[in-house]
Specification:
The chain is of the alpha+beta class and 288 residues long. The chain contains nine helices and 13 strands. Strand 2 and strand 3 form a beta hairpin. Helix 4 packs across helix 7. The protein starts with a helix and ends in a 7-residue tail after the last helix.
Length: 288
């Protein structure tokens, strides 16, 4: 009984935070990496950076993403995540959420929700959302953008996580390989940092394949992830092609500005302008 009570308290705390809160893609970003890493120290010395207000409402606003205007988009807010869904491509443009140490303590503990108890479902309230079976025999996994491992802190967050609005066609080897390594790394960062904001989604280059009964679910050419540590005013981005290319997480790291150039999205615009410029223009993987 004591353990159940402890879990309940942690979930309440976690919910309160959230409720208030072809050319290789690799090649397209590599030209920016050395320049960005070299600029890190200079920016840290010259840019006067304010402390971010970590009140619930401000944290929630950091999950808002301005989606590239060339993509059709509808916004759906769930308990633990915000989905920007592409109603034409039938996949999310971006899925963003807050992940706290309290949530991770639950997800990694004995009382976490079990993934095997959940099945994929269509969200009938979102136009274009596919049925789970439209991915069958497509050759691609149903790839979670907000991973189930981050959502095991409540039954509702897991139900939402398994809605098809959170899913993209993803190469099986990538999903279980390099991409999984990144997800586990970010999961660990939430525990060590206390709180982070994460935004994840597909990359399109105009040559995508399509799957589904009507051949209208777009298979991304790659995927991005951006992570913000609001307590330390640091951010980092990642870009992966939609196939297993191997290598460690650091190999795929880049600045948030690089991700914005590739996707056309605008992340963390709720930050003060000087903070946004500083955290998005540079990155230092070793600081994470």
């Amino acid at each position: 009984m004591k353990m159940r009570f402890s879990k309940t308290i942690c979930v309440i705390v976690a919910i309160a935070v959230v409720a208030g809160t072809t050319v290789s893609i690799d090649a397209r970003r590599k030209k920016h990496n050395n320049r960005n890493e070299n600029r890190t120290e200079k920016v840290e010395k010259t840019e006067r950076v304010e402390r971010v207000d970590n009140s619930s409402s401000n944290i929630r606003s950091l999950t808002d993403v301005k989606i590239n205007s060339k993509y059709r988009n509808t916004i759906k807010r769930y308990e633990a995540m915000t989905v920007n869904f592409n109603t034409a491509y039938r996949v999310p443009n971006c899925v963003s959420y807050v992940l706290t140490a309290d949530m991770v303590i639950i997800t990694d503990g004995p009382n976490a929700e079990m993934r095997r108890n959940y099945k994929f479902n269509r969200d009938a309230s979102v136009a274009g959302c596919p049925e789970w079976w439209e991915y069958k025999k497509s050759g691609y996994d149903r790839g979670h953008m907000a991973p189930a491992n981050d959502m095991r802190w409540s039954r509702q967050s897991m139900l939402d996580c398994f809605l098809m609005t959170n899913i993209c066609p993803q190469d099986h080897n990538l999903n279980g390989g390099s991409w999984n390594k990144l997800e586990l790394k970010v999961h660990a960062w939430a525990k060590s940092k206390g709180i982070i904001i994460i935004a994840t989604g597909p990359v399109f280059n105009g040559t995508e394949k399509r799957i589904g009964n009507d051949n209208n679910i777009v298979v991304p050419s790659g995927f991005f992830k951006v992570v913000l540590d609001p307590n330390r005013n640091r951010a980092i981005g990642f870009i992966y092609d939609n196939f297993e290319s191997g290598g460690g997480v650091k190999r795929h790291a880049c600045s948030v500005d690089d991700v914005e150039r590739i996707t056309g999205h605008d992340f963390f615009s709720a930050l003060p302008d000087n903070v946004e410029r500083a955290v998005e223009s540079t990155y230092n993987f070793e600081q994470w």
